[in-house]
Amino acid sequence: MCIYSLLLLIVLVIICRKRWLAIAIYWMSILLFAGFSPMSGHWSFWVSAAVGMTIFMICLTRFGLLAMLSGGLFIALSSQNALTANFSSWYFSNTIFAAVVLFSLSLYGFHTSLAGKPIFQAGLLEKRESL
């Protein structure tokens, strides 16, 4: 879904030649497409669909495809898995799997955001003189 969304957005930018117009057309088309859902009769559906689509568009246009896919994986694993804190539960292995994947994804994002810089510098705890 995300790859096709990015491809459609790129095609709209090429056709419209203005990024903001392409984003607005894409946002409206996806929101109207969601209107064909059987749950679209209530006003809260439209509000939640508009907010979700806005978050999706901000993440896709500002941060790119990798952030969008990582966010989708994070949301899917945290909301659609059966998670428990009970060690004797039969689905505790799902909790371990989801926790390891989410923790690894978070560590990778943290490492990537540092761009090779060290976490702690040598003079981190030393008192600096103000100018």
Could you explain how this protein is built, in words?
- By secondary structure, the protein is an all-alpha fold.
- The longest helix is centred in the C-terminal third of the chain and has 23 residues, at 92-114.
- The protein is built from five helices and no strands.
- Helix 1 (2-16) crosses helix 2 (19-34).
- The model has no long low-confidence stretch (mean pLDDT 79).
- The chain has helices spanning 2-16, 19-34, 43-63, 65-80, 92-114.
Write out key terms for the chains shown.
flat, 5 helices, 0% strand, 131 residues, mainly alpha, 69% helix
Instruction: Give the number of helices.
Output: 5
- Number of separate strands: 0
Largest sheet: none
Estimate the global geometry from the Cα principal axes: flat
Task: Describe the secondary-structure layout.
Elements: H1 2-16, H2 19-34, H3 43-63, H4 65-80, H5 92-114
Short description:
The protein is mainly alpha-helical and 131 residues long. Helix content is 69%, strand content 0%.
